[in-house]
Amino acid sequence: MNNKKKNEGQTDFSYYGLYLLDYLRTNKFEQADDTAFIRERADRAAKRMRGHGLKAIPPDGAQELAMDTLLRGLHYSRYAILREVVENEFADEVPEEKREAFVLKLLPLVGNVFSVYDLSDDNFALSSDYDLLYTELTGATVLYLDEYGV
Length: 150
Hints:
Blueprint: H1 3-6, H2 15-26, H3 35-53, H4 59-71, H5 78-89, H6 96-106, H7 111-114, H8 128-148
Helix pairs in contact: 2-3, 3-4, 5-6, 5-8
């Protein structure tokens, strides 16, 4: 797919829309191709920024509130969590130059592991569920490596 087609309809995103698009793509969220989702979130963030500007909140505080609106429920992507597990637990087994491809190959195979956890909870990393998910992903990765290697 050429870049013109890939970015079609996205050049008119606002600052918040472009920020969110980059964030979603970088962390491989499913919503990265959902233009309506991105526009709706960006619009809400911009409204929050403007609304708090009228209430005498300092610009930094208003920007923080806008970013909270933009990213609410999007702090933990399946890709980012699995990548963290591979980087932390399998650095010796999976060379750095092969990690991206390895994580992308493994991700669909561990989808059922993620299905029982609420990744939209913005405090998920502080919960015991995060530790359980991390452990399950570590075990699934061990099994995969034992069976198929990198």
